[in-house]
Amino acid sequence: MGIDKPLDKPLLTRRDQLLARLAKPQTYDVAILGGGATGLGVALDAAARGFSVVLVESYDFAKGTSSRATKLVHGGVRYLAQGNISLVREALHERTTLLNNAPHLAQPLPFIMPSYKWWETPFYGAGLKMYDALAGKAGLGKTEFLSRAETLQALPAAQSKDLKGGVKYWDGQFNDARLALALARTAAKHGALLVNYCKAIDLFFEGGKVAGLLCEDAETGQRIKVHSRCVINAAGVWVDELREKDGAANPNDGRKPTKPMVAPSQGVHVVVDREFLQAEVGLMVPKTVDGRVLFAVPWLGKVILGTTDTPRLDLAREPQPFKEEVDFILDESARYLKRGPTRADVKSVWVGLRPLVKPQDDDGDNTKGLSREHTVLVSRSGLVTVTGGKWTTYRAMAEDVLEKCFEKSLLKRRASGVTEHLMLLGSDASHTGEYTSISKPPGGHSYGSEQAAMEALAGAAVEIAPGLTEAMVRFAARYEYARTVEDVLARRSRLLFLDARLASSVAAKTGQILSHETGMDPQLQAFSALAKGYLRLP
After folding, report:
1. Are 225 and 55 in contact (CB under 8 A)?
2. 3-class secondary structure, 2
3. Phi and psi for 347 in degrees, rounded to 5?
4. CA distance readout (Å), 281 to 278, 438, 455
5. Distances, alpha carbon 97 to alpha carbons 10, 46, 75, 106, 174, in Å
């Protein structure tokens, strides 16, 4: 199943119409809480199978973890080292599927692993050759052993002192927030109703079984009861909040108190100028001083350095990095780059919380040891909760969620595999393996086949910032669910993540256009405060 051709005209996302649909009495087949990669993937899969679907998100789509990834579509080199072959194999298959279904938002990217000890090239190279073997026909390119000269030619910014050689291998990278948006809009094209800034504040029950969500619109305060045969909790690191409501609903049914299933892990990313890498290839450090993998990834004209893996007890929507995390990233980068970045070179710093699955007898103090795989649970009331996993396997996760719904007789079984070859909006079904580069500066590539529709709007030639025009802001408001300056500058364009100071300087102009399009307060002051946090280094 696929989209044979791009839409002649994008679907409008007028909020009054969305809320009117939400308020209309109806019993949906599937109601989803959470507009990140997991929830959006489930919405698309269910809608593509012909189920009636509604999804609500308390903030913006991909506001949380799903816009804060390292931007890699990968099989997981570190999981191979841990011996988790099944996870790597699945991820490599899904990597290719994602690249094929959204070539305007994801692309293959070569990585160089420099070696500074004689044994590193053969040792890590052998592992990466196994990575190729597991990928099979889904491989993106062959692993190559490089001499010292070849390594410096491919990665001139690498630290040359004591360099012995290197290994070149292939993985993928993507624009995470815009991929989330493509999932949302493709699900809408298949009939799903998706509403951001609409919080599910409670569950309601009929006969002891969960029967829907009580939602509250953030802009108007309107409360709406949404009935559904199946309710899916896909709130990422925040899934336990709804699970606790579910557990407290029937306190006399003999159930044990609900135990948290998520141990949040904090991942920090630091963004610097392209000159620190000087190449359109990624740098991979297989083992840092704390045993983690470190990446330097070219992305939209900048370089992302990261990531960390630190337990975090609170679930802040905008978590701040710890001083030791920033120190770690800068110090480790300086060991492998000819010119190590300093705090003064940082353009933006952002933090994502990973929903690592917590064993019931685990205190969650060591997140590096917790599962990166996803988990699907169904409570006695029928609430389906899914968490864990990673962006690359979002589609497989969605299939697993629906399979669990079928097993528990929450939905009548329908054929699976409908999303494996489903082109996302903006993709061209005639794609023959040509990808657009997303490692280079931002521009029209993110729109794919919708580029002409965007450029037909007023202000297509008026640039607000490099890679951002007035027409893009209008397109975001009319067709991409954008409501605030943050929505536009953080997720419809990625300017906040690339250069927080520049994003702050164009916020007022962006807000003027957005306000004209929506008639709403674009939340300019809130964005200004937010941007300062992306520049704040502990």
Report:
1. no
2. coil
3. -90, -30
4. 9, 12, 31
5. 24, 18, 12, 10, 13
Share in percent of the chain as helix, strand, coil (round to 5): 40, 25, 40
Residue with tokens 């698309």: 44
In angstroms, the CA 132 to CA 395 distance is: 22
Rounded-to-integer distance, Cα 131 and Cα 91, Å: 11
Cβ contact 130:83 at 8 Å = no
User: Residue 239: CB partners within 8 Å, gap ≥ 6?
Assistant: 34, 233, 261, 262, 355, 385, 386, 387
What is the gyration radius of the CA atoms in the chain, in angstroms?
23
- d(C-alpha 115, C-alpha 284), whole Å: 10
* Mean pLDDT rounded to a whole number for the chain: 91
Residue 293 is predicted with a pLDDT of 87
Residues 6 or more apart whose Cβ sits within 8 Å of residue 428: 6, 103, 104, 448, 449
User: What CATH code is assigned to 15-65+178-261+360-407?
Assistant: 3.50.50.60
Span 331-357, pLDDT tens digits: 999 999 999 999 999 999 999 999 988
Both tokens assigned to 292: 């983690």
Tokens of 121: 């090239």
- For residue 499, give the nearest of 381, 366, 347, 308 by alpha carbon: 347
Chain mean position to CA 152 = 32
* Residues with Cβ within 8 Å of residue 214, at least 6 apart in sequence: 200, 201, 202, 203, 204, 223, 224, 225, 226
Q: Which CATH architecture has domain 72-173+264-357?
A: 2-Layer Sandwich (3.30)
Angle at 486 between CA 485 and CA 490, to 5 degrees: 125
pLDDT band per the 50, 70, 90 thresholds, residue 396: very high
Q: Where are the domains of the chain?
A: 15-65+178-261+360-407, 72-173+264-357, 444-535
CB-based contact 396:417 (threshold 8 Å): no
Is residue 237 within 8 Å of 370, Cβ to Cβ?
A: no
- Residue 8: half-sphere exposure toward Cβ, Cα within 13 Å: 0
pLDDT at 24: 97
Identical fold for domains 15-65+178-261+360-407 and 72-173+264-357, yes or no, is no
pTM, two decimal places: 0.94
Q: For residue 80, what pLDDT is reported?
A: 75
| Listed residue (395, 438, 417, 399) closest to 94, CA to CA | 395
With cut-offs at 50, 70 and 90, classify the pLDDT of residue 75.
confident
